Amino acid sequence: YFGSYGTRCNQWKYARQIDIYNDQIYIADYYGHEIKVVDLNGNCVKSKSLKASSGYWCNWWSGNDNCYPSGIAVGSSYTYISYYSHLGRITTHNTSNLSLVSTFTDTSRLYYNWNMDLNSSENALVVTNYYGWGGKSPIVKYTVSGTTLTYSTTVGTYGYSSANGNVYYAVGVAFDSNDNIYVTDYWQSRIQKFNSSGTYQAKTGSRQYGNPFYYPYGITVDSSDNIYVADYINLSVRKFDTSLTLLESFGGSAGTRLDVAKKVIKKIVSDSNLTSGANFGFMAWASYNQIRVKI
């Protein structure tokens, strides 16, 4: 791992979203009001302040500054930034030097945006609305043509409900290679899948410790259409296929330390390559002499 809190190029104050392009990591530095770019070893490549004014504070309410970047999507020519504010703003930057090219505003649909994603053809962009104030949808899709963004469709319905397609606090969003859209339904602790037209397809997850999910956060899809989700409270990364079947989990505690110890012991005892020629076994595991748990 690398990075630390600070203002230097290879430091940030809150990495709200990252994107990787040409083996370089692009970071939306939320409290630093900057775009940071580092290589895969954490070395500085370039950075760009999003503030127009000088001084410590960022003038976000009036709109004079581009404050609190929350989403970033990187393409071969242009990089797009969304903001956690009421201004409904997306800025477009040259990917080569991060210079500002244009500012797009859609206050009728965008409100306190979180993450975003650009499809592999670089002709569609999706953005999440963390709040649904005024009847706004949790996800908005735009058609991309160079620096021009054109409204395409809304995806999902904002609200706390187990109904299909209802999303309460949309955070992460990602395309697969067929332009299906996946969103992390943060407060309802599930992920949902929509097709390229915004029609609901599938969902998985419920709020629970150890298993998916307890507040899913970021989401990304690799070139093989494997879906990776950050399971926030469970301190895990979950891997799914496009049918939303869980394939693998990384990190986290998947239970208590004792649960993990039991799994390890069972593996040792059941693996003939490890126990060949040995004469041992475990009947119980004790953390105190009065507490014994069957293995």
What does this structure look like?
The chain is mainly β and 295 residues long. It is built from two helices and 24 strands. β11 and β12 form a beta hairpin. The longest helix is centred in the last third of the chain and has 14 residues. The protein is globular. The C terminus is likely disordered.
Radius of gyration, in Å, reads: 22 Å
Mean pLDDT: 88
Unreliable spans are: 278-295
What is the CA-CA span between the terminal residues? 35 Å
Count the beta strands: 24
Structure at a glance:
With 295 residues, the protein is mainly beta.
Q: Which descriptors apply to this entry?
A:
295 residues; mainly beta; 4-stranded antiparallel β-sheet; 2 helices
Layout of helices and strands:
Blueprint lengths: L14 E7 L2 E6 L4 E6 L4 E6 L19 E6 L3 E6 L5 E6 L5 E6 L7 E6 L5 E6 L9 E7 L2 E8 L1 E2 L7 E2 L2 E6 L5 E5 L4 E5 L5 E5 L11 E6 L5 E5 L4 E5 L5 E6 L5 H14 L1 H4 L8 E5 L2 E4 L1
Parallel strand pairs: 13-14
Antiparallel strand pairs: 1-2, 2-3, 3-4, 5-6, 6-7, 7-8, 9-10, 10-11, 11-12, 15-16, 16-17, 17-18, 19-20, 20-21, 21-22, 23-24
